[in-house]
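Sync notes, pocket subgroup
Present: LS, DG
LS reminded everyone that the earlier model was apo-only. Rerun requested with 4'-deoxy-4'-aminopyridoxal-5'-phosphate included. Inputs:
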Amino acid sequence: MNVQEIRKQFPILHQQVNNHPLVYLDNAATSQKPVQVIEALNRYYREYNSNVHRGVHTLGTLATDGYEGAREKVRKFINAKSVQEIIFVRGTTTALNTVAASYGRANVGEGDEIVITPMEHHSNIIPWQQLAKATGATLKYIPLQEDGTISLEDVEKTVTPKTKIVAVMYVSNVLGTINPVKEIAAIAHKNGAVMVVDGAQSTPHMKIDVQDLDCDFYAFSGHKMCAPTGIGVLYGKKELLEKMEPVEFGGEMIDFVDLYDSTWKELPWKFEGGTPIIAGAIGLGAAIDFLEEVGLDKIAEHEHKLVQYAMEQMKEIEGITVYGPKERTGLVTFNIKDVHPHDVATVLDAEGIAVRAGHHCAQPLMKWLNVSATARASFYLYNTEEEVDIFVKGLIKTKEYFGNVLF
Ligand code: PMP
């Protein structure tokens, strides 16, 4: 499929916004959904909506097959060893909180260390802050280098035998930095710690192999990779998950319930209390089929071209600061001198261009960048070079609008 054929699969892209063709560049916040996913949801609700794992009736069996079939698709997609290692959750935030609440509470104590970085999304900071506060552990940060990358030397210096958990994002939602999580995992293991990877911004854009990364936990959200909102995945190594306690208790996750005690189902269901996210998982399965048909390597290459093309042009516009390293995934975070990013986003919106403005759920990183907010354009498989041109024209217009032509 070429980019025009890909675009045809996304009905939402073919509309005017403020009398201009929509240019959707807010993909790091959430992606659009192809007909394959919309149809999968439609079919589920029209033809076989039913609860799973319970009934012996035909619809129940179809729904269970759809739900568990999606788990196998996820397993293959990230190359996990077993479907028992794939837990369906609401999203990255829930996945990371589950690790902190279950593994963290059982394995972290006073005097221990939890290591993260200042570039993390709030979802990969606050669960660890809370864990540190509750247990008396110390939260430590791997410092960032000037270009917004991490050096392995600094990782070696920060992670010690006292470290119990290292939690790092694979790709930054602000800087586009691709962190060396495989190498960081090796350093964590050498010190006896587990490695948690926030894969929210990597999984939609590049081939993931959790066995090759050798991470212990890996979290991601469906909605950033063409799937519906409300579905995400926590991957965990089976030997760790087996020893962990569930964090949600109730229906679906139990084996036997007595008046004063209960036992849990086996993996992965012991972590999926209550009626699961059936439609969401089926939608995620359809999204995976679609992304695999296009090819993750092709998607990564396409986005790489777009972001380098955008950055080359932005470099030529005086008064624009671009944050982060040259080698990055398909997003560009920037500021225009003397223009608030919300104003940038508002002017672009009037041109039909959707970008994000704000702190991007990364306030410590904003502090490190010494800004209160930034604007961000983030690309996906359906964006085109023409859209980059429209975006760059929009930036020039924004500058003119605010009277900053002659910096
Ligand atoms: N981590 C990163 C790097 C993200 O970009 C996001 C979403 N912006 C999250 C975590 C949280 O994902 P969700 O809101 O889907 O739980």
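DG: Residues 174 and 333 are 6 Å apart (CA to CA).
LS: Residues 37-292 form a domain with the Aspartate Aminotransferase; domain 2 fold (CATH 3.40.640.10).
Action: DG to write up.
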